[in-house]
Amino acid sequence: MKNINLNESVWQIATTNVVTVFADTPIEDIRDMFKLNNFHHIPVVDIGGLLKGIISSADLVKAEKLLTLSQLGNRKFTAEIIMTAFPFFLNPDDTIMEAIELFVENRFHALPIVEDGILTGIVTTHDILEMTLKLPELVVED
């Protein structure tokens, strides 16, 4: 096993085959995506891959509760309505330590990775935890 420097690029631990949705994706489809996959965040992009927002499984639960408690049942809820618009994001060359700091300071659990506005990956707290379990020693260099 190799050691990983926390000042290395976050790209080293990122997921690059990211499942995404469009702004007009119905809430029912988003629910199905969460049920069928082992993730808790779905980035929202436009047709060119430009990041528009992110939806967490908690966002979905809140939206479904609102639908249940309200008379909005006939209204079509889409990704655009329940997403967090303009989310914090990382660049591919940002460091693993920068990701950790953003997670801790903001209580985030996922950060999209964006290059020139286009979604290229995502890193999660799970990725950080998985990295620490696989490595014999973490290295932090100044």
Provide the descriptors you would attach to this structure in a database record.
7 strands; alpha+beta; elongated; 3-stranded antiparallel beta sheet; two-stranded parallel ribbon; CBS-domain; 142 residues
Describe this structure in words.
The protein has 5 helices and 7 strands. The strands form 3 sheets. The protein has a 3-stranded antiparallel β-sheet. A two-stranded parallel sheet has the order 1-7. Strands 5-6 form a two-stranded antiparallel sheet. It has a single domain, classed as Roll (CBS-domain), CATH 3.10.580. By secondary structure, it is an alpha+beta fold. It is elongated and about 55 Å long. The chain starts with a strand and ends with a strand.
Mean pLDDT: 88
Sheet bearing the most strands, described? 3 strands, antiparallel
Ranges where pLDDT stays below 50 over 5 or more residues in a row are: none
- The CATH class is identified as Alpha Beta
Topology:
Blueprint: E1 4-5, H1 27-36, E2 41-45, E3 51-56, H2 57-69, H3 79-82, E4 84-85, H4 96-106, E5 110-115, E6 118-124, H5 125-134, E7 138-139
Parallel strand pairs: 1-7
Antiparallel strand pairs: 2-3, 3-4, 5-6
